[in-house]
Amino acid sequence: MYLNDEEKSMLNGDFGQAKKWALEHQIKVGKFFSASKFVNVSQAHMMVDPESIGQAGVIFLEDLVNKGAKVSIPTITDPRGVDLNYYKPLGQTEEMAEIDRRTIKACTSMGIMMTDTCVNYQTIMPPVYGDHVAYGDTGVVIYSNSVCGARSNFEGGPSALAAGLTGRTPQYGLHLDENRLPTKRFCVKYQPKDLTDWGILGAIIGKTLGSYWEVPLIEALEVIPNSDEMKHMGAAMASYGSTPLFHLHKITPEAKNLKIEQFANLDLIDINSSDFESLKSSFGNKGDKIDVVVFAAPQLSIVEMQKVANLSHNKSFKVPVIVCTSPQVYADSIRMGFIEKIENSGAKVLQGTCFYQQYAREIGEANGWKRLLSNSTKIVNILGGYGYTPALASMENCILAAVKGEMV
Amino acid sequence: MNKILKCHPGIGDKTEGIVLCAKDNFSARYDLDRVKGVFSRPQHKLFGKSYKNKILVLNESKGGVASAWMLYEMKVRDMVPKAILFNKANTILAQGAALANLTMCDRFIDGDITSLLKTGDKVIINPSEGYVEVS
Questions:
Q1: Complex ipTM tops 0.90
Q2: How far is CA A124 from CA A41, A115, A130, in A?
Q3: CATH number of A282-404
């Protein structure tokens, strides 16, 4: 792997032990994927929730701080695992909160901005076309690659941190143009109607692909999905398939100039209404009792918050309802009265967290929650492994179910 | 004579152990109870099986970025597989292996590693040379 003079100096320890670790880590990863060199990145986005990093991860971060670690490019964070203003009522422990506090302290010491969001492309600073970035959170990466035309691999927490420290990442995977071309075609024969449908479409495609190294070209959409719709589709696709990039024919930036004839030899897979029904039917039925309703994964945008607020107005929920949003959207939602409307119905809005990243197993056990309902196709995929029996419905039906205590 | 399966050079140290194999994909967040050290996703072929000290052999890595930190955290608690062999690893699992110094290889020249190996096989993995020896 080619190293320039600056990189050789980093590896030599001339920029301190933290950057030396970071570059060594990146070289290991780069060699695994046959990267020939590094590429500079403009931003890093790090997943660093306490459930994932644990005590070991915090000690690792604190050790880097002691070695003088400072990020060299804007570096931001994915959702936290604990809303420090509201964790005991959820059954989260002081130990969990303490890991979070120490993580925040370590990250802040390194110059990392605690944005605590997985919708940074809606709220912080979206990348631009051709922008090389090192983003964590699969939903962030797939949106940034597909909708913005940025270039990022899935960067797990350690690698995003390494990129923040060195300002670069090994040039492999989606940093190379040849890996961004379609490998399979999908023809959409049922047009998604709401956010959940868009999530289901993403899930069907992700499930079919089942690989980080496949790129879908999605054809025959009759509408241009908005940012929240793209968000749910991408997050579900990445969750079910580990897919980091999609192209919507004639819609997304890199698909605008693609000529279908060039890809005529690729498999073309139809997606029909029966595929939507089939996926939906594996996640609950009308009349099923529910223990908790969750709106999260990804965190809600201001537009989704307004919708939840309007749907919740003058309602009284029989089962707990949890809404997760970013600190940026939360502040706006207070100002606009959305939080008040939502919480008056008995729901709770958490800021800077996302349900599946906040000790979902322990929260479920502490509260006796097993049957979880959400409009997020991503979260129902994840939580099966956390001891839940997840169910899926539209936002409207989730609200009605919360009032009734069962699926409608 | 022992069978040699060539692959792309991997990550981690030379190691040996007993295979636990399935054709499923893998994510530490989606599929594991990392406290008990078992597969916890009911739909996974290895559901209920202990992964500790096993050589996991699986199709591809899937899902989110959390697995990168999780492999390191599992390694420090000594609740980790001895190595993981994939047909194709995604970036996250490779990054996690790099941090944890967990042995990991993928891209086998002879074909589908989940068919070439079976649960119970004894193997030696040499990631720097890029091969797996089946005894």
A1: yes
A2: 17, 8, 18
A3: 3.30.499.10
